[in-house]
Amino acid sequence: MSGPLQAQTSPPAAASPSESELDQKRHDMEALQSAATVSVEQKRKIEAEIEEIRTDRVRLNAALIDTTAKVHAAEQRADEIGERLTTMSGSEDAIRRSLESRRGVIAEVLASLQRLGRKPPPAILVRPEDILRTIRTSIMLGAVVPELRAEAEALASDLSDLANLKTSMAAERATLATQMADLNAETTRLQGLVDARQKALAEAQTTLDAEQRHAAEIAQQTTSLKDLISRMEGSDALARKAAEAAHESEVAQQKAAEVDADSIKAKVEAGPFRDPARLAPAVPFADTKGLLSLPLSGRIVKVFGQDDGYGGTEKGVSLQARQRSIVSAPADGWVAFSGPYRTYGQVLILNVGGGYYTVLAGMDHVDVAIGQFVLAGEPVGAMGDGSVKTAAAIALGATEPILYVEFRKDGAAVDPSPWWAKAALQKVRG
After folding, report:
1. Residue 362: which region, alpha, beta or left (left: phi > 0; alpha: psi -120 to 50)?
2. What is the pLDDT along the chain (430 residues), one digit of tens a residue?
3. What is the spatial distance between Cα 419 and Cα 132, in angstroms, rounded to a whole number?
4. By the 8 A CB rule, do 346 and 362 touch?
5. Considering 200, 227, 242, which residue would you say is the last residue of a domain?
6. 314 & 356 share domain
7. Residues 94 and 196 in one domain
8. Distance (Å, rounded) from C-alpha 260 to C-alpha 417?
9. Which structural domain, as residue segments, surrounds residue 324?
10. Most exposed residue of 249, 257, 314, 336, measured as fewest CB within 10 angstroms of its CB?
11. Of 70, 67, 65, residue with least CA distance to 274
12. Concatenated DSSP letters for 72-119?
């Protein structure tokens, strides 16, 4: 009596988790808590490090450039792993489709092997009455078995490839998870450094806010980038000051070149972007051809001079970016404009000296202010998630954010390709 009664009143054994399942859940919870603790400790360490170098402009600049380079490298590696995973997924789908299409053959092979295993050929000497049937079966098997063997070997090969592919994909996903963790850590560090840099401008924040509002009013009144640059440097105090600084730097460079042209050549050969303490470009912008890095890790989708689809040609380069990619300054320069402009999205215009300007458009936000001097490789903004469409993104039908880059000389767009380093072009073109 007690047995049936207990069976009715007690819950089924399967409904209660086993000790091993509970242990696994405890282990998973501890791992999550440990990861969260490491993340907090890492953030505190980053904050302490940034606070230590906040007042040291040279160290801060060096840290900004170095961290931005690490973020770009991590984004590039993550993109490469993502592309490999996409290729592997395509291969997995192809193998699965192949196996699915041969489902009938698989069933036939398995059935034949099963029959052979369960009903081996009869012993001729023991049962002589089956001699004729045995001969007929042997003739049939002689014709069928080679074909079955070939099919079985093909199936085994496909299954082996599928298993190896799954193992490789699991390894790639683990690597991607590690890369994303590194990327998140470097991005956190970079944001802290950017905040520290901008705090140095806090004393002039009232002036900056006024100038930013003035810049927005000018942007609404202009109809072209050429007009925008001209109006900004004509009526905006900080933009005018930046233009004057660029002119003074250009004059100083020309005088230095007249006195010692070899020293300028030596600086170019040694690397004009190595000194993080510089307050002006080390060499003229025209001498940096073949030395500039692209502003972000992305793929070139349109080049200068290409048909723009509207009867004209492209005046710049369009880069397809990762969501929320960090954008860096391609060259040393003074910020001539920073803010939204027409259908370009958030725009940054740098006066890089010698009558040259670089335009970066399509960003989600810009982290530098008008009049500020920025170094090549220094972070200046970030892309969005692609939900807000700029004119460049709409023209391409892109779902990912698009960064538009344009170089201008004396009011006209120029081909930027001679300035890009070969290594940078190889990366974005695969």
Report:
1. left
2. 344 333 333 344 444 445 555 565 555 555 544 444 456 676 677 677 766 666 677 788 888 888 888 888 888 888 888 888 888 888 888 888 877 777 776 676 666 656 655 555 555 444 555 545 555 555 555 555 666 667 667 777 777 888 888 888 888 888 888 888 888 888 888 888 888 877 765 554 555 666 777 788 888 888 888 888 888 888 778 788 888 988 898 888 888 777 776 766 777 777 788 888 888 898 899 999 999 999 998 889 999 999 887 788 999 999 999 889 999 999 999 999 999 998 899 999 999 999 999 999 999 999 998 888 999 999 999 999 888 888 888 888 888 999 999 999 998 999 999 999 987 666 555 4
3. 86
4. yes
5. 200
6. yes
7. yes
8. 29
9. 203-428
10. 257
11. 65
12. HHHHHHHHHHHHHHHHHHHHHHHHHHHHHHTHHHHHHHHHHHHHHHHS
Taking the C-alpha atoms of residue 127 and residue 387, their distance in angstroms, rounded to an integer, is 80
- Encoded amino acid at 282, one letter: A
Name the maximum alpha-carbon separation found in the chain.
Answer: 114
Vertex 383 angle, CA 182 and 413, to 5°:
125
Of the three residues 135, 165, 200, the one that is the final residue of a domain is: 200
* Location of structure tokens 């819950």: 11
Distance, CA of 95 to CA of 6 (rounded, Å): 52
**CA dist., res. 68 & res. 168, Å (int):** 30
Query: Structure tokens of 116?
Result: 């052979």
Instruction: Compute CA distances 110 → 14, 55, 113, 375, whole Å.
Output: 35, 75, 5, 68
How many folded domains does the chain comprise?
Answer: 2
Map tokens 């001079």 to a residue.
305
For residue 252, being part of any structural domain is answered with: yes
**Helix, strand, or coil (residue 173):** helix
Closest by Cα among 85, 46, 297 to 170 = 85
In Å, how far from its chain's centre is CA 90?
A: 21
Residue 114 corresponds to which tokens in the numbers above? 């099963």
248 in a structural domain: yes
| CATH number of the domain bearing residue 149 | 1.10.287
Residue 257 to residue 245: CA distance in whole angstroms: 18
